[in-house]
Every structure is written in structure tokens, then in C-alpha cells.
Amino acid sequence: MAEIKAFRGMRYNTEKGGDLNSLVCPPYDIISDEQRTGYIEKNPYNIIRLELPKGGDERYKEAGETLDSWLSADVLGQDAKESIYVYEMDFTANGVKNSLKGFVSLVKLEEFSKGVILPHEETLSKAKQDRFNLMSETFCNFSQIYSLYMDENGSVYSLIDGCSQGEPDMSVTDGDGTVHKMWCVSDPEVIAKVEKAFEDKKLYIADGHHRYETALNFHKHLVAEGKDTEDGLSGYIAMMLVNMENTGLVVFPTHRIVHGLENYSTEKIIEACKPYFDIEESDAGEKMNSALVKYYSNGKKAFALYAGGGKTYIMVLKNNSAVKEFLPGMSEAYCGLDVSVLHNLVLERIFGIDKENMANQKNLSYTRSLEEALAAVDEGKADCSFILNPTKVAEIRDVALAGEKMPQKSTYFYPKLITGLVMNKFADRK
Asked: What is the DSSP letter of 20?
């Protein structure tokens, strides 16, 4: 099954680079141009210059040259010993303080068809090309794939927890107040036990599908070019591995914003939805939130259509088998997802927004922010928005086990991993 291994992580030398808090950044795909500029103004050695290069066609080459210069200046360096890196996040979500602990190691890249590493979402080709170009010039994973594994008896967690009771080797606090802590573990006995424990485990990608597929394609490219072997280091990728039973796992919903439709009419849409849904009017405040939480807790498939001006319609699926009737070849797990119900019964069949349209975001965009989903309609930028409940972790596992992928933007794991604590440099620049 999953093959993991320790590695010589590349880390900042804070004596040369400065305070670690000024060197790290959130995931590249949630950073605006203005935020990027702010990180660099705070510290010119911020990892964002490598992870998200900007400019023309030469930007990837410039990232590679910047990496070389930082390595030469000892701003970055690789650890002397192969290690795994225990990673803990202390955070607040929905008003509740929480903690999540996993570890970072290398994981051998496997085709999804082997059933060892399982995806759960579709990906977009544009994002994969960008990451391929960056990897071609830097030969690094600057950020980790976020993956889950089953650990029913807690044996792996006990191992890593025992290695992370003292003061961490690194600690930073991000803009949301999340404290990110990391311990470097180089004890060969501990590493051997952890590696052994994963010989019978599957991994479920929670976040980082684009980067995983890109790494696999890049490895194949290097092997085909004779620049690496099948068993070379490019055949591994850095992952943050978290126990699926961890009580600190938090998944936020990703809401849908519908825009640019011709002759849109909320009244006609609601009428067309009535064969599939029980529909009740609500407001966009606590009444809506309470209704969605209630249906979520009771296992009902429900979401809200926001029509603007505070007017909201709670839509509760009448027949849980409704999607299965239209998609007989798909699993019960896939057909039972809230996003599958919304996409198949409403967006595709009633709105006429097909899968290609969704992928290109022609009439559909996504946001984690409830406020943004409501404001887009109130400000006339959108026709309506759909407010969703979060996908359950067990649903993610079941869809992946069925060999299927959820629609894009079905999950948002929180908090996001910070970039810049430890990185995987698997080769020198060619």
C-alpha cells in the first residue's frame, strides 16, 4: 500500500532570513496580488517569491534562480538528517478552539488506478500547467499535499504525539490566529515504525489534487527524458498525513454563485424545483443557518437559494434516491452528496449549466465566504447563490473508495497548511 519515507527537509535559516513569521505564507491559490506584494514588502525572502512567481514567461526561471541564490546565501538549507516533521495546528473554527496534529513525510507517487492514493475532486488543467512549469525550474515541493488515512486504533498518532511533547522546533502564527508548530523527528526507530504502519494503508487526498497529478506527470517526464529513474526522488512528494478519525478535522462548505444567465427568474426556478424539493421561505440570517444545521444533523439533503434582499428559499430533497435515478452508474455515496444533488438536479437540469460550463466557471463561481455569496446577489453581480452545508469526512472517504470524484470545490479543509516551514527539494536545477 502507501510507501512513505523520511527526507532531508529544506528549511529557513532565520539568522539569515529573519523572523519565521515573516517568511511563511498561506497556500498560493488563496493569495491575491495585493497580499502577495504585502508579504514581499514585509520580508523579501518570503516563500511566496518561490511558490507564486509573477511576471512574464520568465517568471518560473526567475523563481529557480532565486532559489539558487537563497541556497547559496544560506537563507535556505537542507537538514543534515532524514526526518519526518510532526505538524500541529491550534485554531478556532465556528467559535470552538481546536487542535489538529499530523506529520509531513515523503510519499511514493502512485497512479490513482492502483487504489493506493485516492482523489475525491476533479481538477482543472490550467492550474496543473502552472505547477508543472514551476517544478521544471525549481525541482521542489514548496507546499505539502494534505492527505488523510485510517488509523482506527490510533497507533500512528501515538507515535507522532510522543515525539512532539516538548517545545517545537518551529512555530508561527498566521493571519487567522492559527498557531502552526513543527517538530523535526530524526530517530530511526520511530521513523521505521511509522513507515511500517503505512504498508497496509490507503491515502485520501484532502487538498492538493492539482499538485499531486502534476508531480506524477513531472516524474514521468523526467524518467522519459532519462533525467531520473523510476525509483528516483522525483517519484515521491511531500505530504501532510492526518488521521481521518482526528477530532480536529474541520471541513467548511464552498458556496455556489450563479451569474450571467439569460432571462433568469427566481419564481420560475422555484417552481421547476418543486417536483424534487420541499421548499420553505426563510431569511438570510439565523433562521437560514438554523434550518441548514438541523437538516444536516438529521441526514437530510438540503441547501438554500438566496435570491437577494434577504429573501431565501430552503430546499430539502424529497427523495434521497432522486440523483441515483439519473446517474444509475454512480455510487450511492456520490449520489448522496449535497453538491451532487445541487449540480445534477438544479444546476444542470433546471439552470442548463453543464459540466464544461462549471469547469470553465462561465456561469458559476465558488466562495467559502457566506458574506460574499450573499453580497454578490445583493450588489447585482449574480442572479442567485446557493448556500451549502459542509461535506462530511466520511462522505469524502466513501466517494474516494468508490473510485469516483466529487464535483470541483466540494470541500474546504480548515485550517489551511502554512507554506514555508519545511519544503522538499528532490533534485538540483538542471
From this structure: G
Cell numbers 462549471 correspond to what residue?
A: 358
Cα 109 from Cα 35, distance rounded (Å): 32
The CA-CA-CA angle for residues 322, 326, 328, to 5°, reads 100
pLDDT at 127 over 80: no
Q: Are 323 and 344 in contact (CB under 8 A)?
A: yes
Cell for 124?
482543472
**Cell numbers that stand for 316 in this block:** 430539502
* Contact assessment for residue 425 and residue 139, using Cβ atoms and an 8 Å cutoff: yes
Residue type, 355: K
**What residue ranges in 138-297 does DSSP mark as E strands?**
140-141, 145-149, 170-173, 179-185, 203-207, 236-243, 250-252, 255-258, 277-282
* SS3 of residue 378 by DSSP: helix
Cell numbers that stand for 128 in this block:
496543473
Given a cut of 90, is residue 29 above it in pLDDT? no
What per-residue confidence (pLDDT) applies to 393?
87
pLDDT at 358 > cutoff 80: yes
Chain CA centroid to CA 184, Å: 24
